[in-house]
C-alpha cells in the first residue's frame, strides 16, 4: 500500500524522469522532481513535530498536489495517515481522529507550509478501537458513512502491493500513461488512479470537487492532457459522453465502478471512447476490487454483470440458510481477496461482517447476487435495501431501476420514509433530462404501469439539478431522505 517504498519510488522517478509531469491540477503541473522536493520539505517539517515513531496523523483529503506530497511525506516518515473526507464537519473529524488515536491534524497549502493542530486524546472515545499498526498499514480510509458514522478501514501494505501489481498487469499500465483521478482522494479508487500511477512514474490528472460536475472542463482535461485511463462512477462517464461531438481516442482503458452503469448510457460511452477497452469493476473499501467484466461493444443491449472474480479472489454465494451454494443460484455475496483489510479499527463491528470459512477470511458484502452456470455474477441489489411497505417486502433498487427507464429521467433515487399506516412509504427524487417536461404525476403513472401498487412511490420530487452526492460520488440517500422528512414535517 502507500508506504515508504511508494515515496522512494517517487524519488527514483525523479532521478530517471525529473521533468516528467507527476500531477496536474487546474492550471498547474508538478514534475516528479518538484513532487519529490515538496515531499522532502514536508518530511523535514514532520520530523520537527513531537510525533512518536509509527504515530497516526489525520490528513483531510483535499484534492491537491500538496496533500499528495504531504501523504508521501507521512509514509516516508513511517507514520500512519487517517485520510477522511475534507467535507466532514469539525465534530465528526475530531471524533474520527480520536478513534484512530491520531495525534495531529495536518494540512498543507500551495506555499509549501504545513499546519499541525494537536488532537486532544480521549481514551473513552478510543475504547474498543484497535491501535493502527504501522508494520501492517500506513493508510486508514473510511467508508462513505451512508448508513451512519464512517467506519475506519486500515489498508494493508502487502494488500496494496498485490493490488497495484494486478492492476498494472490487467490494464497494461506503464509510466507513459495518464490517469484521470475523478474520485475523492479519500475514496479507495485513489489506490489505483493516484497511488498505483505514481508508483509507475505516470501522470495523474487531479479533478477537484469544484470541477467534478463541470462537463466542459472534464472534457477539456481528458482531451488536453492526453488522458489514457479513465475510472469513475456513471456520472463521470455521462458528463464526458453527453456531447456527441466529443471523442477521446487517446483513452485506451475506461473503467465503470461505484454503481450500476445505465444501459442507455453505453452507446454514448462507446462513441466517446472509440479506442478504449471498457471494464465494469466491482468492489468495496473493505476488500478493494474483487470482480471484473470486460464490456463488449457488440453486446451492449445485454444486462451488464459484475463479472468474475479477479485472480486470487474467492467468492461465495450464500443462501438464506447461510449455506454456500454450489454452481448457479442466488444469495448474498461473500468475498475473500488478496487486497482486503484485516478488519475495522472498531473491533466490535468485525464479527458481523468478517467470517472464516475453510481457513480463509471472507467479507459479507451485503450485496444480493445471482450466479449463472458458467460462473458469471449479476448484482441484484442490497440485502439492507429491502423494506416492507404494508407488509410486502420491496427492493428500493428495483423501484429505482424501473423509474430510470423513463426516457426523461437522467437519475433517480428512491428512499423509504416512515408512515403511520404503511410502516414506510416510498419517495422518489428524480433529475430529469435537459428540456424534458416530466412531471411527478406522469412519472407515477409510468411507474404504476410497471410496478405493483405497493412499490409505486407515494411522492415524487422532480428537479433539474444533479442529485446530492456523498464524498465517494454516490447519490446521498441519507441527505435526500432527511431533506424530504424536514419538508414533510414543515408542511
Q: What is the tally of beta strands?
A: 25
Low-confidence stretches: none
What amount of the residues lies in strands? 25-35%
**Helix fraction bin:** 25-40%
Strand order of the largest sheet: 2-1-10-9-11-12-13-14-15
What overall geometry do the principal axes of the alpha carbons give?
globular
User: Might you state the CATH topology name of the largest domain?
Assistant: Rossmann fold
User: Gap between N and C termini, in Å?
Assistant: 51 Å
Q: What integer value in Å does the Rg equal?
A: 23 Å
The major β-sheet equals:
9 strands, mixed
Number of domains: 3
Q: Could you characterize the architecture of this molecule?
A:
The chain has 3 domains: 4-212, ANL, N-terminal domain (Rossmann fold); 282-292 and 305-382, Roll (Luciferase, domain 3), CATH 2.30.38.10; 390-490, GMP Synthetase, Chain A, domain 3. The chain is built from 14 helices and 25 strands. The protein has helices at residues 4-16, 32-47, 65-76, 90-99, 123-126, 157-170, 190-200, 215-224, 234-241, 266-272, 350-353, 396-403, 440-448, 477-490; strands at 21-25, 28-31, 56-58, 80-82, 102-108, 114-118, 137-142, 152-156, 178-181, 203-206, 229-232, 253-256, 277-284, 288-294, 308-309, 314-318, 329-336, 354-357, 360-371, 377-382, 386-389, 392-395, 409-419, 423-432, 459-463. Strand 11, helix 9 (234-241) and strand 12 form a beta-alpha-beta unit. It is globular and about 65 Å long. The N and C termini lie far apart (51 Å).
Amino acid at each position: 500500500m502507500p508506504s515508504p517504498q511508494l515515496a522512494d519510488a517517487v524519488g527514483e522517478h525523479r532521478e530517471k524522469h525529473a521533468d516528467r509531469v507527476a500531477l496536474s491540477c487546474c492550471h498547474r503541473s508538478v514534475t516528479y522532481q518538484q513532487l519529490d522536493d515538496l515531499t522532502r520539505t514536508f518530511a523535514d517539517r514532520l520530523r520537527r513535530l513531537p510525533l512518536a515513531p509509527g504515530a497516526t496523523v489525520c490528513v483531510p483529503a483535499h484534492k491537491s498536489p500538496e496533500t499528495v506530497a504531504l501523504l508521501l511525506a507521512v509514509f516516508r516518515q513511517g507514520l500512519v495517515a487517517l485520510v477522511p473526507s475534507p467535507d466532514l464537519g469539525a465534530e465528526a473529524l475530531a471524533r474520527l481522529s480520536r478513534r484512530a488515536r491520531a495525534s495531529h491534524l495536518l494540512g498543507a497549502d500551495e506555499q509549501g507550509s504545513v499546519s499541525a493542530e494537536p488532537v486532544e486524546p480521549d481514551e473513552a472515545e478510543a475504547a474498543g478501537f484497535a491501535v493502527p499498526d504501522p508494520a501492517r498499514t500506513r493508510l486508514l480510509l473510511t467508508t462513505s458513512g451512508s448508513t451512519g458514522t464512517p467506519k475506519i478501514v486500515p489498508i494493508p501494505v502487502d494488500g496494496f502491493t498485490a493490488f497495484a501489481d494486478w492492476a498494472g498487469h490487467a490494464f497494461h499500465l506503464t509510466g507513459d500513461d495518464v490517469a484521470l483521478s475523478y474520485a475523492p482522494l479519500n475514496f479507495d479508487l485513489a489506490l489505483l488512479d493516484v497511488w498505483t500511477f505514481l508508483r509507475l512514474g505516470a501522470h495523474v490528472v487531479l479533478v477537484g470537487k469544484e470541477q467534478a460536475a463541470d462537463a466542459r472542463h472534464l472534457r477539456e482535461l481528458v482531451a488536453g492532457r492526453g488522458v489514457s485511463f479513465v475510472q469513475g462512477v456513471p456520472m463521470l462517464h455521462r458528463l464526458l459522453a453527453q456531447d456527441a461531438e466529443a471523442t477521446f481516442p487517446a483513452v485506451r482503458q475506461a473503467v465503470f465502478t461505484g454503481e450500476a452503469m445505465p444501459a442507455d448510457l453505453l452507446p454514448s460511452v462507446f462513441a466517446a471512447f472509440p479506442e478504449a477497452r471498457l471494464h465494469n469493476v466491482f468492489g468495496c473499501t473493505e476488500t478493494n476490487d474483487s470482480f471484473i467484466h470486460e464490456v463488449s461493444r457488440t453486446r451492449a443491449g445485454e444486462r451488464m454483470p459484475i463479472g468474475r472474480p479477479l485472480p486470487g479472489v474467492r467468492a461465495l454465494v450464500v443462501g438464506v440458510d447461510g449455506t454456500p451454494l454450489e454452481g448457479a443460484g442466488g444469495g448474498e455475496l461473500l468475498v475473500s481477496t488478496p487486497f482486503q483489510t484485516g478488519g475495522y479499527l472498531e473491533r466490535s463491528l468485525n464479527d458481523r461482517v468478517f467470517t472464516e470459512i475453510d481457513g480463509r477470511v471472507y467479507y459479507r458484502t451485503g450485496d444480493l447476487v445471482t450466479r449463472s452456470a458458467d460462473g458469471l455474477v449479476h448484482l441484484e441489489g442490497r440485502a439492507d435495501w429491502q423494506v416492507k411497505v404494508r407488509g410486502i417486502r420491496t427492493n428500493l433498487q428495483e423501484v429505482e431501476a424501473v423509474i430510470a427507464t423513463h426516457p426523461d429521467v437522467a437519475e433517480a433515487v428512491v428512499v423509504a420514509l416512515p408512515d403511520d399506516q404503511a410502516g414506510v412509504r416510498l419517495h422518489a427524487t428524480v433529475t430529469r433530462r435537459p428540456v424534458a417536461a416530466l412531471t411527478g404525476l406522469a412519472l407515477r403513472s409510468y411507474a404504476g404501469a410497471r410496478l405493483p401498487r405497493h412499490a409505486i412511490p407515494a411522492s415524487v420530487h422532480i428537479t433539474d439539478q444533479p442529485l446530492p452526492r456523498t464524498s465517494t460520488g454516490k447519490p446521498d440517500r441519507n441527505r435526500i431522505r432527511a431533506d424530504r422528512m424536514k419538508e414533510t414535517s414543515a408542511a
